[in-house]
UniProtKB/TrEMBL annotation:
It comes from Leclercia adecarboxylata. One of its GO terms (molecular function) is DNA binding. It comes from the Bacteria. PROSITE patterns: HTH_LYSR. InterPro entries: HTH-type_LysR_regulators, LysR_HTH_N, LysR_subst-bd, TdcA/AbgR_PBP2, WH-like_DNA-bd_sf, WH_DNA-bd_sf. Residues 5-62 form the HTH lysR-type domain. Keywords: DNA-binding, Transcription, Transcription regulation. This is LysR family transcriptional regulator. Belongs to the LysR transcriptional regulatory family. It holds the Pfam family HTH_1.
Length: 302
């Protein structure tokens, strides 16, 4: 007879894996250690595989455990989403939506859309993750993010996700107010300075990296910032240069600290996409939020 995995066993397994110990999982799930140990033991016996390696200070996943963990997380997220979907179709306008935003989208699009959506649906909990697409791949795969709005550089994810183009946005070279290069009108004049960029992995900055690789001389990128905010802070308070969204030059909080350089060479625009798992089925309220992002995106097209 095929072993039937029970939901409480999946929840116990996933929480133990995430906490790294049965004791920690017990605190989160409000269950005793013996009850959790029993669930894990029944699960391992049922699927005929060892999922954890027991150590003196907690547990770690085996190779089989790691593989099973990826499936178990997705199952639990799909179950949560399915329950939200049914409740919403029955008129209960509540649940949870998990979204990912590129840093400039979090500054430009997100505040107005989320504020309006929250006013319409105050019972819905929205979790926002900020960063480049590559930092969100696993959560998208596991259903822990419902969608993201981000830049994308063609690569290995084409078959996993759908990419709906929303808009393009111009970028520009920035320096601090009072920078010695403030009158420069070409990239060649800027090559003697140090540059900083957000990480180039699979995004608009990967596109820039490719563009610069075809030049005889390229900027000297001495610092790679993993976050957008650290890149902005470094440019605003030092002699580093960077390429950032053009609208930062009009940002009331940054306009007196950042100066956009009027160089003659054109920079490529960044294309932003609505990105979802190909096999995902969104709840009614998630679909409504996506629609609001689409509408607002049309208003910011340059």
């Amino acid at each position: 007879m095929t072993f039937q995995v029970k939901i409480h066993q999946l929840r116990a397994f996933v929480e133990v894996a995430q906490q790294g110990s049965i004791r920690g999982a017990g605190r989160v799930l409000n269950l005793s250690q013996p009850a959790l140990t029993k669930s894990i033991k029944e699960l391992e016996e049922g699927i005929a595989a060892q999922l954890f390696i027991r150590r003196s200070k907690g547990v770690t996943l085996t190779e089989c455990g790691e593989s099973f963990y990826q499936h178990a997380r997705l199952i639990l997220e799909e179950l949560r989403s399915a329950q939200d979907d049914i409740r919403q179709r029955q008129g209960q306008l509540a649940g949870q939506i998990n979204i990912g935003m590129g840093a400039s989208i979090a500054r430009l699009l997100m505040p107005a859309v989320i504020s309006r959506f929250h006013q319409q649906h105050p019972q819905v909990k929205v979790r926002i993750m900020e960063g480049q697409l590559v930092s969100m791949i696993n959560e998208l795969r596991q259903g822990e993010l419902d969608f993201t709005i981000n830049t994308y550089y063609q690569g290995p994810y084409d078959h996993e996700f759908t990419f709906e183009k929303l808009f393009e946005k111009p970028f520009a070279i920035f320096c601090r107010a009072g920078h010695p290069a403030i009158e420069a009108d070409s990239i060649n004049e800027l090559l003697k300075y140090s540059w900083t960029m957000p990480t180039p992995r699979g995004s608009y900055y990967k596109q820039l990296e490719e563009m610069f690789s075809h030049r005889d001389q390229i900027p000297r990128i001495g610092v790679v910032c993993e976050t957008f905010s650290s890149c902005i802070s470094l440019v605003a308070q030092s002699d580093f240069l960077s390429i950032l969204p053009q609208e930062l030059g009009c940002d009331p909080l940054l306009a007196n600290r950042l100066v956009m350089l009027a160089v003659k060479e054109p920079l490529p625009k960044a294309t932003y996409y609505l990105i979802q798992r190909r096999d995902s089925r969104q709840t009614p309220l998630t679909t409504s939020l996506i629609t609001q992002f689409r509408r607002h995106a049309r208003q910011v097209i340059y």
